[in-house]
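Quick one, T. Sequence first:
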Amino acid sequence: HKVCWFMIKFRLILLVLVFSSSCERYSSSLPKNIEFNFMFETELRPHSIAIERENGWVYVASYNPSISNPVAMIQRLDSYGNEQGAIDFYSFSNGEYPHYAPIDLCIDNEKKLYVLAKPYYKEDSYYVPFGVYSILQFDLNFGYYQEFEIPDTTRRQFYTSLACTDKYLYATGGSIIKVISKNGELVSEIIPSSYSEVLDSLSFLYVSDMEISSNEIFYLTGDVPSQDNITGWYIAKLDPESGILTMINSQSTGILAAARNNPGLDIDKDGNPYLVTGYEKSLEVYNSHLVLVKEVDIRIPNGDEDTRPVDAALYNSRIYICDNYDGHVGVFDISY
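Structure tokens:
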């Protein structure tokens, strides 16, 4: 009996240790504190950011369609904001079209930079869009490889977001995600089925940003008409195998949310999304089940209201937040 009781106690202790260890691992992947560290300037109207993990190179896409001060550029900076190079799409001459507006970008594990862009031509003083979208492929030093148009044989739609895995590129702007080979061929389409308290139909889904976790779960954000026809922001995750899209309202959503700004996000190695929103000028951190665990005011320390965070990228216990209002990236330290 003593031996049996000893074995029962031993198993109970082992269970407690395993449980507490797993809880520790789970909680340690979520941030305890997020604090502003520094900021650096970019070109006007930055709207997309990606970081190459090995060297810490920061790529920022900016687009300002002003007649007096047009900008269509991707900069490469080091992790402290020192510029190391740039590509100007108003003077870029290797593509199939005269000019391009960069929309989104991603970097794959083969160290290729992919740029989702809208081709334009100039008419008098104005830039007029072509009726296509392109993906341009570069190396990390902006050496040009190729360009291909997004295959759109069955449905015409606009595109706002680009993400990549080892095998494929994924482009979307709404309720259809195009799966594209890295040679530009259409592989398939992912059409999510809604599992949502926000809306019954995905017909009017607008995606402003999309990222893919290491286990290939898709995370999306944007705005959508709710059941009461009030525009608001959402955050969602999509299992591409089942097509089920789980969606919730962002913590900082509101009637004016979409009019003020489009939200952007990044995902950490454990599948926890970090969402930046311009409506409340905040950073929202969710766990992988889309439960809000932290919300942080990300205005620069002087409390300036004139800020418009639109995208974010995680790197080395820091989050780099792209601000579209006055052209800067704010860098925040994350402690776990």
